[in-house]
Amino acid sequence: MGKFTKVAAMVVTSALILGACGKADLSVEKKVEAQSDKEAAVEVFAPHKGLNQKPTPIKIDRISEHEVNIEITAQITDIEINKGEMYKAWTFNGEAPGPVVVVNQGDKINFTLKNMDPSIPHSMDMHAVHAAPSTDFANVMPDHTGTFSYPADNPGVFMYHCGTKPVLAHIANGMHGMIIVKPKDGYPTDSQVTREYALVQNEWYKYNNLEDFTNGVPKYVVFSAKALKNGDPNTNGAVGSLVDKPLLAKVGDRVRLYVDNVGPNEVSSFHVVGTVFDDVYIDGNPFNHMKGIQTLLLPASGGAVVEFTVTKEGSYPIVTHQFNHATKGAVAVLKVTKDGHDDGSAVMSH
Ligand SMILES: [Cu+2]
């Protein structure tokens, strides 16, 4: 066992002890150590065994013009990451990535994290806000609830994630998502947009394996669609899910994608085959306006608004142009038909 693995195992073990709110569970500790001897936690944590918490809908309540209450759960839920392959994910609301959050620039966010995990603390780091991480992104203990308030003054497309140590494990196990802060004065191209989707890129590794998270390469790199409104596609990050059930558009649509690469480790070279991005707003800020972009670099956590026009019927693969990652699953398809409905024609992907 490498030095790092030992340290990692200690961190994980102490998180479990802490997680039990002072009630040290030696059987759990032994279990984790036993796992570490082979390979860091290749099995499900003992307290998570048999646990599959039903997805809980996110609660977003606007309580006044510039104030919104948001409640998100931390929970352990089985996620299908490839056909027939389940991952006992650490999630927000039972989705991985978590549900997309949309607020307005200038909102005060009253954020509640309900930690339904019986064994591990979790927390929420919102990239969209100015906050004091040590208090505003503080750990919420197992079976506890924490509430935090902060302003969302910057418009954009941001990542949110669990910030509990080891952060890499919490993100790689599924605790990530996207928050959109709508600009006060909109985007200059708002009136041209006829269709929009929210897309997230993330990676999956060997199950709960900090050594692999740290030194390995992703097993899968995937896209998911997160619903902006009722009826929109809403998927987990799974190989092929947006190829089997492509996103739809109609000829002539000006498509806007809110995109974020939640990593945890890799960058994305975001590209839509068969088109050029007419307009891009880096990190979703209207000030960061670029035109004529073929491939957009999204750093780990980075987001953007991208817009393009589809001029012909057909299947438009959405990829990261790092094709080793596309081959590992990072392909979605935008199917363009005459009327925007699925005409049942075969989908061409990469
Ligand atoms: Cu967490």
From TrEMBL:
Cu cation binds at residues 122, 127, 161-162, 170, 175, 321. Its cofactor is Cu(2+); Cu(+). GO terms for molecular function: copper ion binding; nitrite reductase (NO-forming) activity. Pfam families: Cu-oxidase_3. It catalyses: nitric oxide + Fe(III)-[cytochrome c] + H2O = Fe(II)-[cytochrome c] + nitrite + 2 H(+). It is an enzyme of class 1 (oxidoreductase). Keywords: Copper, Metal-binding, Oxidoreductase, Repeat. Residues 77-185 form the Plastocyanin-like domain. Its EC number is 1.7.2.1. SUPFAM superfamilies: Cupredoxins. Homotrimer. Belongs to the multicopper oxidase family. This is Copper-containing nitrite reductase.
